[in-house]
Design goal:
The chain is mainly alpha-helical and 190 residues long. It has helices at residues 4-17, 38-56, 60-69, 74-77, 93-100, 106-121, 125-147, 154-163, 167-177.
Length: 190
């Protein structure tokens, strides 16, 4: 029989599933009526974070964990576009996370909260890489949406590019901007 902390942990896992249905609403401004979900974004942020961490010689597993949970609070507050943040004051992400994991197993509570706290503080080399991964994923997604004829993506590209801090994130952004998103197929097609 499951104890209360296992039920709390199972509840947290179920809540994270909601991220598969939460749209990244900022893309609506480009005319995209069916943008990526928060879960889709977070998955690629984790991949990018791992890659950047390897290149930057920091802990890729810890960076991936921070990336995985960086937007987990959006199950409770939604994906508020940057322009909306002027008008809507949501609780800090650390506070939302504390509520999300309050009934989880103590190790889960500590691990998830630590990842979110470090990400939000943005001070450690791993947190800087994780935050770069978030911005780089936005840039890559904007390039892909631009290729799909959503022409109003340049602002997302410009602001994401300007936010990057690590040399590897800047280099990857330059590479992403210099090729189309299906370039990877050229390695395997005749």
């Amino acid at each position: 029989m499951a104890d209360d902390s296992h039920k709390g942990t199972a509840s947290f896992i179920s809540e994270m599933g909601v991220l598969k249905r939460v749209a990244r609403t900022g893309w609506w401004f480009t005319g995209n009526k069916a943008p990526e979900s928060v879960a889709e974004h977070s998955f690629r942020v984790g991949v990018i974070g791992s890659v950047l961490a390897m290149v930057e010689s920091v802990d890729p597993a810890w960076v991936a964990l921070m990336c995985l949970f960086h937007d987990s609070q959006e199950t409770r507050v939604g994906a508020i576009p940057h322009i909306g943040r002027k008008y809507i004051k949501a609780a800090p992400n650390q506070e939302v996370t504390a509520d999300q994991v309050a009934n989880a197993h103590p190790a889960v509570r500590t691990g998830v909260q630590s990842a979110v706290d470090e990400y939000e503080a943005g001070e450690t080399p791993e947190a800087i890489v994780a935050r770069d991964a978030d911005k780089l994923e936005c840039l890559v997604q904007a390039v892909e949406y631009r290729e799909q004829a959503y022409s109003l993506t340049q602002n997302w590209i410009d602001t994401s590019l300007a936010s990057l801090k690590t040399p590897s994130a800047k280099a990857l952004a330059d590479a992403a901007l210099s090729m189309d998103s299906l370039q990877w197929q050229q390695n395997f097609l005749p």
